[in-house]
Write a structure and sequence with these properties.
13 strands; Rossmann fold; 363 residues; globular; alpha/beta
Length: 363
């Protein structure tokens, strides 16, 4: 017994400690693990943003070898932006609201489409962006109240992604930290406020380790374990799951009626609360269908149609990126996202910025 304890104390523990420190060094300096900003819950408005008191800048990486990298910095207002935001304004202001596509940690924040627009429109406008990963359309509505009260933009732009719809409905939402819409009857809806988000001491401590961040965020160890259990569950089902544009297509198709009413409610409310502002909705394309030249068989484009109808019926503006992405793809054949991440890459952000810039100048 003494020999066993001796071996543990003098050999096993030092070996484990050395191995851990070696891995820490590797994933801190050689293959930098993903470093992400800390969330902060603004109780006044019921929104998630970022903590701007510590961990204010860092490197977000994707992939086993950190192949894709993006430098982020949290500004004075708690958003990923290379510049600070002011309450007062000396020129007209554009506010862009969205989820991880606007948060855009996966590319340098100087190359996001809001940053590109800000540079191009600098003479007459300033462009502020408000993006938080996982937020659905219902949360954009909630965020718009904060944005309007704190920054008073002249133009509101909502960035819409295909997974913004199901997740706006309370019974399908996977996050309690975002505002959702609850359908009481076919003609009645209420907003359900989010729960306050708190970061556990354990999570904060673990995030300080580069090796643990690598396991969690670069190789998604927990998600991989969960995928095995999901795969086993799926094998027991009779029907396979069809995924496109990061959504379960068959589920969304079954929820068309609910989605339509939730979108109608959100659009009506946004218009009613901002009748004196210009409001533009920009919606992503089914990029996988563009790459494979199968747009005529697109199984998620019904969501673009639902969104467009609700926006136009409420006398707001709608930009469907499908046409712009498709025409650019035909000319250049350059993908708008990387091979290891479905979010827009820097090229994708540039195309969206080009599209919006031309639209704003033309109109």
């Amino acid at each position: 017994m003494k020999t066993v304890l001796k071996n543990i104390f003098y050999i096993t523990l030092p070996t484990l400690a050395f191995t851990f420190l070696l891995l820490e060094a590797i994933f801190r300096w050689i293959i930098p693990s993903s470093n992400q900003p800390d969330y902060f819950f603004d109780r006044q408005y019921g929104i998630l943003k970022f903590n701007n008191y510590h961990n204010q800048n860092g490197l977000y990486t994707i992939g086993k070898f950190a192949e894709q990298r993006g430098h982020w910095s949290i500004n004075n207002a708690g958003w990923n932006s290379p510049y600070d935001y002011k309450s007062s304004k000396s020129k007209k202001r554009i506010a862009i609201i969205g989820d991880s596509y606007i948060e855009a940690l996966m590319i340098d924040n100087t190359n996001t489409y809001p940053s590109i627009l800000n540079k191009r429109l600098v003479k007459d406008y300033e462009v502020y962006s408000f993006g938080i990963s996982g937020a659905p359309l219902s949360q954009y509505l909630n965020m718009s109240r904060y944005v309007v009260k704190e920054f008073n933009p002249d133009i509101l732009i909502f960035n819409i992604i295909h997974n913004d719809f199901d997740e706006s409905l309370r019974k399908y939402s996977e996050s309690p930290f975002f505002s959702t819409i609850d359908l009481i009857t076919d003609t009645t809806a209420i907003e359900v406020p989010p729960k306050a988000y708190t970061t556990s001491t354990l999570r904060s401590t673990l995030k300080k380790s580069a090796f643990i961040r690598y396991l969690l965020f670069n190789v998604h160890a927990l998600a991989t374990l969960n995928a095995f259990s999901l795969e086993a569950k799926e094998k027991s089902n009779t029907l396979p799951v069809t995924v496109n544009a990061n959504i379960n297509v068959s589920q969304s198709q079954k929820r068309v009626k609910e989605i339509t009413y939730a979108v109608t409610y959100a659009c009506k409310t946004i218009k009613k609360e901002n009748s004196n502002k210009r409001i533009i909705f920009v919606m992503d394309a089914s990029r996988s269908d563009i790459y494979t030249n199968t747009l005529e068989k697109c199984n998620v484009c019904f969501l673009n149609a639902i969104m467009k109808k609700a926006v136009l019926e409420n006398e707001m503006e709608f930009i469907d990126l499908t046409g712009h992405f498709y025409s650019t793809w035909i000319k250049e054949h350059k993908p708008f996202n990387s091979a290891i991440d479905f979010h827009w890459n820097e090229y994708g952000h540039k195309i969206v910025a080009d599209t919006l810039y031309e639209y704003l100048i033309r109109n």
